[in-house]
Design brief:
- The protein is mostly helical.
- It has one domain.
- About 80% of the residues lie in helices and about 0% in strands.
- The chain has helices at about 5-35, 45-70, 80-100, 105-110.
- The longest helix is centred in the first third of the chain and has 33 residues, at about 5-35.
- The radius of gyration is 15 Å and the shape is elongated.
C-alpha cells in the first residue's frame, strides 16, 4: 500500500470516528428517554443489550441525517458509522446510568 492510500485511509477512519462521536452526543438524550425507566434495573450485560436495541432507531435517523450533509463520508460506510455511533452512545448512557442521572447537557437538550 502506498503512502497516499494509507494517509487517505487514516483520514477517512479519523473522520468516521469523529462523526460517530457527534452522532452519539446528539442521540444521547433521545436514547436516555427511551431507556431510563427500565435499564437501571438490569445487570450490566442485559442493560448494554437493551440500550443498544433501543438506540438503533435513533442512531439510524442521525446517521442518515449526517450522511445527507457530510460529503466526505460515502453511503458505503453507513454500517461502520452506525456501529461506531451505537457503541459510543451505549457507553455514554451506561455512564449516565451508573451515576444515577444523565449529564446536565443531556437534560437541557431533552427539555
Amino acid at each position: 500500500m502506498d503512502w497516499k492510500r494509507l494517509l487517505a485511509r487514516f483520514r477517512r477512519d479519523e473522520m468516521l470516528s469523529e462523526l460517530a462521536g457527534e452522532i452519539a452526543h446528539r442521540s444521547r438524550a433521545a436514547v436516555w428517554e427511551r431507556i431510563s425507566h427500565r435499564a437501571g434495573r438490569m445487570g450490566l450485560s442485559e442493560g448494554r443489550g437493551y440500550i443498544r436495541a433501543r438506540a438503533a432507531a435513533v442512531i439510524a435517523v442521525e446517521v442518515d441525517r449526517a450522511l445527507s450533509t457530510e460529503t466526505s463520508i460515502d453511503a458505503g460506510q453507513r454500517v461502520a458509522l452506525a456501529q461506531r455511533a451505537t457503541g459510543r452512545v451505549v457507553r455514554l448512557v451506561i455512564r449516565d446510568l451508573l451515576t444515577g442521572r444523565p449529564a446536565a447537557a443531556v437534560l437541557r437538550r431533552a427539555a
